[in-house]
Design a protein that fits this description.
The complex is a heterodimer of chains A (118) and B (109).
Chain A lengths: L3 E4 L2 E4 L4 E8 L5 E7 L6 E7 L2 E5 L6 E7 L2 E7 L7 E8 L13 E2 L3 E5 L1
Parallel strand pairs in A: 2-11
Antiparallel strand pairs in A: 1-3, 3-8, 4-5, 4-9, 5-6, 7-8, 9-10, 9-11
Chain B lengths: L9 E5 L4 E6 L7 E7 L6 E7 L4 E3 L3 E6 L4 E6 L8 E8 L3 E12 L1
Parallel strand pairs in B: 1-9
Antiparallel strand pairs in B: 2-7, 3-4, 3-8, 5-6, 6-7, 8-9
Classes of the chains: A mainly beta (118), B mainly beta (109).
């Protein structure tokens, strides 16, 4: 299994809603990532987990709350979002932290969750 | 009219020709560089990587060239096929992976 599975594929939420994005991989990867991608732009790093611990937070607003319940799962909890948060949210995983020994940055991406905030 | 920045740079090539996609990177301390391909409606897909101590690496139909002097990275695709049509992103990293701007490759039949 070489897939990263993201659910839901599409999500529409109001600014007062609370929702979650989910990501799952069964490749035994120990690093997982959240990226945000706006139309025609490159993916922007949000969070990195390494061995289930938050390793990098790219100064993301607190209305985005990541969670890594175990080595296979990564969640992104959403609360009080703004319309400008509408984007494609990509989850990725790698064997070990990108840039660490033995890894040059080969990330496996899911197909993303397209979020629309009304 | 449309604003600058809403358009991706586009490279249009004839099927069977070679393609060269260029990228300028910013961090001279980056240890590795990667090319990703993103098809419509999908997440990015790893193509090839190169460490900072190398200047060329070849894969199947693809070659990555790294010029650290001018901080330039290029991806060469040989015998471009319709299935190569996608947006291509370069990325650089040391302890985290940061994507650069993309280029749309259109392959004309």
């Amino acid at each position: 299994d070489t897939e990263v599975t993201q659910t839901p594929k599409h999500l529409v939420m109001g600014m007062t809603n609370k929702k979650s994005l989910k990501c799952e991989q069964h490749m035994g990867h120990r690093a997982m990532y959240w990226y945000k991608q706006k139309a025609k732009k490159p993916p922007e790093l949000m969070f990195v987990y390494s061995y289930e611990k938050l390793s990098i937070n790219e100064s993301v607003p607190s209305r985005f709350s990541p969670e890594c319940p175990n080595s296979s799962l990564l969640n992104l909890h959403l609360h009080a979002l703004q319309p400008e948060d509408s984007a494609l949210y990509l989850c990725a995983s790698s064997q070990v932290l990108a840039g660490g020994p033995g890894n040059t940055g080969e990330l496996f991406f899911g197909e993303g969750s397209r979020l629309t905030v009304l | 009219g449309e604003s600058v920045g809403l358009h991706l740079p586009t490279l249009s090539v004839q099927e069977g020709d070679n393609s060269i996609i260029n990228c300028a990177y910013s961090n001279s301390a980056s240890d590795y560089f990667i090319w990703y391909k993103q098809e419509s409606g999908k997440g990015p897909q790893f193509i090839i990587d190169i460490r900072s101590n190398m200047d060329k690496r070849q894969g199947q139909r693809v070659t990555v060239l790294l010029n650290k002097t001018v901080k330039h990275l290029s991806l060469q695709i040989a015998a471009t096929q319709p299935g190569d049509s996608a947006v291509y992103f370069c990325a650089e990293g040391s302890y985290k992976l940061i994507f650069g701007s993309g280029t749309r490759l259109l392959v004309r039949p």
